[in-house]
Predict the 3D structure of the following.
Amino acid sequence: MASSLCNLALLALAVAFCVQGTLGEIACENLDQGSCAFAVSSTGKRCVLEKQVRRSGEEAYTCRSSEIEADNLKDHIETDACITACGLDRKTLGVSSDSLLESRFTQKLCSSGCYENCPNIVDLYFSLAAGEGVFLPKLCEAQRGIARRGMAEIRSSGDVAPGPIQPVKFIGVAPALAPSY
């Protein structure tokens, strides 16, 4: 009786593993270099590609789960169409808001092909922009209108260092003034 229960338990465990595999659960650590960047695991964590240089000088790429969670999205590998439409690269290492400073990238991100069709990527950059104190829809609005204002908004996070309390004294040569026309 005990051996049949044991066999039944093993069979149930094997079926559970098979069903999990067929449902398409994604573990970042199991993804290759070509599908890692911009993927979301079955736990809702974003996958990031990392490069490691071995002692031999050989480069190795690994995929791992980041601490960044996707909003209401799990088990997703981004499509090639969205990667292209949003101006991204499958070989992107890590996750960073730095690309939001590049006007070419924000143009692609805010294009209708990306913004309206690639919710995973828009969600990621919405969160990254928010971390910098920027509201992505406003940035896209500025990108469509006056791009420079949007870029200035990112560069200025709102925190400004206070000016000197006492007047600055120059010792030696006075600063040159810009010519007035």
In short: The chain has seven helices and two strands. The beta strands are 45-53, 59-69.
